[in-house]
Amino acid sequence: SLALLPVLTRHLSPEEYGQAAMFLTVVNLCTGFVGLNGHAASARRHFDGLPSVEFARLNGACVQIIAATAVLLLAFLACFHPSLSSLLGLGTPWLAWAVVVSGCVVLVQLVQAQWQVRGDVKAAAMQQVSEAIVLSLITIFLVVVLNEGGAGRMVSIIVSSAMFAILAIVLMYRMKLLRLDAWRIQHVRYVLRFGVPLVPHVIAAYALSATDRVFVTS
Questions:
Q1: Which among 32, 47, 48, 14 has a CA at the least distance from the CA of 200?
Q2: Minimal CA–CA distance to 35: which of 120, 101, 91?
Q3: Which one-letter DSSP state was computed for residue 176?
Q4: Residue 119 has what DSSP assignment?
Q5: Rounded distance, CA 196 to CA 185, Å?
Q6: pTM
Q7: CA 11 to CA 34: how far, in whole Å?
Q8: Which of 51, 81, 82, 203 suits a disulfide with 32, CB 3.0-4.6 Å?
C-alpha cells in the first residue's frame, strides 16, 4: 500500500481515495467478527497433539464458522444497509463485497497460522509478498491503464483477496490440514470458546484506528 501511494494519489480524486480507504476500513472491521478468530484457535490447538485427521476437521470447523459468520453479517447488512451506507459513505454493494473480502482475509490468516506454528517462514513470507505484488499489479492495471478510479482500487482488493483465499484452501488440502466432509460439534465449541471472547478486543482495536475516517466521511 505504501508503494502504491504515489500512483493512487495521482490517479484518484480525494473522494475516490477516501472511498477506497473506507472500503478497507470496513473490511478490517468485519475481519474482527468473521471467523471469530478461528485461525488463532487453530494455531493454539496445534500444540495439543491432535491426530492429523481431527486437526484437519478442526480447521474444517473454522472454515464453516467463517462462512456462517459472513452470512450473518450479510443478513445484518440487508437489514441496516441504508443507515450504514450513509454513515460510511459506501454503496450497499461495496459493503457486501467488504464482508466477502473479510472472509477471504480470514481464510488466508488460517493457512498463515499453520505455517507460523510449524516454523515455515519461507512459505508465509512468499504468500505475503506474492499477495502484495498481485494486488499492486491489478490495482495499476485497473486504476492507471483502464482508469477505473476508486472502483478499480476496490475491485483489485476483491479479486486479489479471492485469488489468495482459493489458494489457501487448495494449499491446506494439499498439506492435509483441512477436511470439510464432516461436522464436529466439539471442534466448533472449542473455536467458539477460544475465539468469541477475543472478538470485542479485536473489533475495538480496529474501531479505534478507524473512527477518524468515519468522522471525516460524515
A1: 32
A2: 101
A3: T
A4: T
A5: 16
A6: 0.92
A7: 32
A8: 203
Helices (H), 118-198: 121-139, 149-174, 185-195
Q: Which set of grid coordinates corresponds to residue 153?
A: 482500487
Indicate the length of the chain as a whole number.
218
Cβ contact 39:165 at 8 Å: no
The CA-based dihedral angle spanning residues 205, 206, 209, 214, taken in that order and rounded to the nearest 10 degrees: -140
- Tens-level pLDDT at each residue, the chain (218 residues): 677 888 898 999 989 998 998 999 899 989 989 999 999 999 999 998 889 999 999 999 999 999 999 999 999 999 999 999 988 889 999 999 999 999 999 999 999 999 999 999 999 999 999 999 999 999 999 999 999 999 999 999 999 999 999 999 999 999 999 998 877 899 999 999 998 998 888 878 877 777 776 676 66
Q: Which three cell numbers stand for residue 56?
A: 484437519
Residue 159 DSSP code? H
